[in-house]
Amino acid sequence: MDSVRKVKVEKKILIANEEYACKNRDFLAKRKIPCLNVISSPGSGKTTILARTIRELRGKIRIGVIEGDVRTDIDAQRIRTTGAPAIQINTDGACHLSAAQVGDVLQKLPVDELDLIFIENVGNLVCPSAFDLGETAKVAVVSIPEGDDKPAKYPALFARAQALLVNKVDLLGVVDFDMDRAGADALKLNRNIRIFPISAKTGVGMSRWYDWLEALTNRRGR
Amino acid sequence: MDSVRKVKVEKKILIANEEYACKNRDFLAKRKIPCLNVISSPGSGKTTILARTIRELRGKIRIGVIEGDVRTDIDAQRIRTTGAPAIQINTDGACHLSAAQVGDVLQKLPVDELDLIFIENVGNLVCPSAFDLGETAKVAVVSIPEGDDKPAKYPALFARAQALLVNKVDLLGVVDFDMDRAGADALKLNRNIRIFPISAKTGVGMSRWYDWLEALTNRRGR
């Protein structure tokens, strides 16, 4: 297959995805529920971040989670231990969630009892950023052991995300990571990105992230 | 675009890729040079592993590197500081290297002066494993901070790789990681996979990996 044809096909796939994304966006807008599409490499700590966030915001923000994984429901099980509703999507090999997959399960969440929905995408720093799921905003996660060059090397996500969580700051000093470099590279791609250095393990830095989430849910007039 | 049509298109892309992969495999076989396709999440330490391997095998195995990244030539620059030849491919957004891209640059390496070629794929635990580059074998890398559930959650790579480097063992005890679980899950997918717990930072465990590389280059009768 020549590359012109391949590009045309990719464009069609993205256009079809966009139609489903619009439906999801309408569904969420009618219910005034913000929805965050959380994207990162495998193992950067997405599930740990979500589990801690759910626990520490209990009584303030009611959170539901859609979990995307190639295989297993390990992550949904971890989320359910917090008491929050979680639905697992298995992509069975595919490298990102599609808007159609999210649309299929969105109604299975008790949406009328929620203030915020997180979608935890498949662990992948490249592909998921190209697929709109109808989310309110994308949230990028990068962790200290991955190295400070990730925004420069994988720019698409950081250019599109509204927030960047730099997780595992408890490992600063144990492994090399120049926070100024990572932050500057992210801001060069996207001068509006909000950067939160955090440790979902120790809790350091999480309160600013929670403030951002509260502002997001309040903006929606709930 | 309906999903049946999408699957057909994906199949065509894979078939086209396979033709280029065969050409690469012929090119390498004629010159009796083994070639390893190194695949992992972003930030698991691929480049650090390759740089240390090149330095420590100097005088024994002459190594050349093809670097794949979405953007920047940071990795090729790091490899060149070892004195080894390195060629950077930028995929400009794409999430994996294709056999055609590798074929384009393979002849730019001084192949007649090399005993082994590493291809460092785009940091991505999902997509690259589906695309044969004509390599002799795939090598998976997973690092301790990513967590021990990665073989279970991203099975395709581990099912196809001949070797698994479990990197950053210097962080065992600092972060949670059950080596037995990760190893058992990988072996369940692929009972022939060779597992090497290593630290490319401290050098721990690297000698067994070097023995494996030496056996690989010797098998080829060089």
Notes on the protein architecture:
The structure is a homodimer of 222-residue chains. The first copy, chain A, has 222 residues and is of the alpha/beta class. Chain A has a seven-stranded parallel β-sheet with strand order 3-2-4-1-5-6-7, sandwiched between helices. Chain A is 40% helix and 18% strand. The first copy, chain A, has a single domain (3-219), classed as Rossmann fold (3-Layer(aba) Sandwich), CATH 3.40.50. Chain A is globular. Chain A has helices at 3-30, 46-56, 74-80, 99-106, 150-153, 155-160, 179-189, 206-219; strands at residues 35-40, 63-69, 86-90, 116-120, 137-143, 163-167, 194-197. The termini of chain A are far apart. The longest helix of chain A is centred in the N-terminal third of the chain and has 28 residues, at 3-30. Chain A is built from eight helices and seven strands, in the order αβαβαβαββααβαβα. Chains A and B meet through helix 1 and helix 5 of A and helix 1 and helix 5 of B.
